[in-house]
Design goal:
Elements: H1 3-14, E1 38-40, H2 50-54, E2 60-66, E3 71-77, H3 86-90, E4 96-98, E5 114-117, H4 120-132
């Protein structure tokens, strides 16, 4: 590259504003159709487990607390999810959705990638059952759904 051409590029870029965004300090609104964190409404869930069957990444587990009373707890493995939204499309009862507001999902520990959805008392009941079994993965009550 010639020095004259390079000096011309340098002088032009001295008077331009930077193109980069100041992301953590200035945040823009996320697009409406962004596929972020999976959301779960346990009141609408019937326990059919079609979402579990259709998930290509095996990122969803549904545990039945009481089938008659329609009480379920969903364990979502964020680190396995490819955010394809196949589970949302497959759910016939609109119990699953993708949040466009929760998309910053980085964490420093692996425990943050296992999210449990459901009623708080159902999550605690399953947590008590799991702690009785040796070698079982812990249920982390991160995001209980409101009913």
């Amino acid at each position: 590259m010639r020095i004259g051409a390079m000096l011309g590029d340098i002088s032009r870029s001295l008077f331009k504003r930077p193109v980069t965004e100041r992301y953590p300090f200035e945040r823009k609104a996320a697009p409406e159709r962004l596929r972020g964190q999976l959301t779960f409404d346990p009141a609408k869930c019937t326990g059919c487990k079609i979402c579990v069957r259709d998930c290509p990444a095996n990122g969803i587990e549904i545990m039945v607390v009481d089938k008659v009373a329609k009480r379920f707890v969903m364990r979502f493995h964020t680190d396995r999810c490819t955010y394809c939204a196949q589970c949302v499309v497959s759910c016939n009862f609109d119990a699953l959705g993708m949040s466009h507001e929760q998309w910053e999902l980085a964490a420093l520990s692996k425990e943050a990638f296992l999210v449990s959805f459901g009623r708080e008392e159902d999550i605690q009941a399953l947590l008590n059952q799991v702690t009785c079994k040796p070698g079982a993965a812990p249920v982390v009550p991160v995001a209980p759904a409101t009913t």
